[in-house]
Amino acid sequence: MRVARTLSREHVVIDEVPAPVPGPGEALVRIRAVTLCGTDLHIWEDDYATELPIVQGHELAGTVETAPAGSGFLPGDRVAVSPIRWCGECHACGIGRINACARSSVLGCYTDGGLAELVAVPVTDLFRVPDGMPTEVAALAEPTSIAMQAVLRGRPEKDERALVLGCGPIGLLATLHLTALGVEVVATDVNPDRAAFARGFGAIEPDGRQPSLVLEATGAPSAFTTAVESVATAGRVVLVGISDRPVTLSMRTLPVKDLDLLGSRNSLRRIGEALELLAAHPEPAAALVTRRVPFAEVGDAFGLLRTELGKIAVLL
């Protein structure tokens, strides 16, 4: 079978390797679509906590080739795959927050992932794709689950005003989820084309109303500052954007404004919920995939992430 292996900085080769042999409790899945994100770009640029070489791809969907008897899955079933692994032993896992596992791993980020014709994964990591949903849209279930986790960390309330900072895929999907929950959302971005794109996901024009919930989805220190300054007193700020860059914050800001400052990482296995959200909003879901690339050209796809407005889907 073929795999796309990132050997070194900006160097991808397609290799022929033996097909994986599923272990106990595992299914063999033929990957049909992998969508790419900013993390993939950083790995490809060798600017991430990943040891190269690696087979990238953590947003994946495909069809079942084989599955254990009694698993409920049959050959040909279309599935999205959860790539997250957790230890089950740390404090976070012990309180049910496996998304924050101290020793978590993600297929395609720290171990070989989905840019392969076949993968063997636990059947518990498979989620059925709704009828009629394009497979490349089903691959969006992983980033959608991350956006939903961030939204729910903020405890959104119907009819409140939220501000989403950053209209990349996570910000757009968070906007979609918030509006589906009845929240009024203003979404901003330094790129006016991205900000305009957010209108298709439910964002409204600002009207001066102060947000009680702010979701920061850029990882930029300036956006963090904007978040805590913009949010209403006694509001909530959720940080889902990640960066190693430091920020400076007055020790007065959080206590005086009585803010809840919350981090959000990965998701609590919300792939199934994410597929439901995407199925309920097929037009924006489909619009988010703005470029499709054949597997043979995957080496060129990563560089396109620097300028692409939406998501790039690699089709196998």
UniProtKB/TrEMBL annotation:
<protein>
    <submittedName>
        <fullName>2-desacetyl-2-hydroxyethyl bacteriochlorophyllide A dehydrogenase</fullName>
    </submittedName>
</protein>
<feature type="domain" description="Glucose dehydrogenase C-terminal">
    <location>
        <begin position="136"/>
        <end position="303"/>
    </location>
</feature>
<keyword id="KW-0479">Metal-binding</keyword>
<dbReference type="InterPro" id="IPR013154">
    <property type="entry name" value="ADH-like_N"/>
</dbReference>
<keyword id="KW-0560">Oxidoreductase</keyword>
<dbReference type="Pfam" id="PF08240">
    <property type="entry name" value="ADH_N"/>
</dbReference>
<dbReference type="InterPro" id="IPR011032">
    <property type="entry name" value="GroES-like_sf"/>
</dbReference>
<feature type="domain" description="Alcohol dehydrogenase-like N-terminal">
    <location>
        <begin position="23"/>
        <end position="131"/>
    </location>
</feature>
<dbReference type="InterPro" id="IPR050129">
    <property type="entry name" value="Zn_alcohol_dh"/>
</dbReference>
<dbReference type="GO" id="GO:0046872">
    <property type="term" value="F:metal ion binding"/>
</dbReference>
<keyword id="KW-0862">Zinc</keyword>
<dbReference type="GO" id="GO:0016491">
    <property type="term" value="F:oxidoreductase activity"/>
</dbReference>
<dbReference type="InterPro" id="IPR031640">
    <property type="entry name" value="Glu_dehyd_C"/>
</dbReference>
<dbReference type="Pfam" id="PF16912">
    <property type="entry name" value="Glu_dehyd_C"/>
</dbReference>
<dbReference type="InterPro" id="IPR036291">
    <property type="entry name" value="NAD(P)-bd_dom_sf"/>
</dbReference>
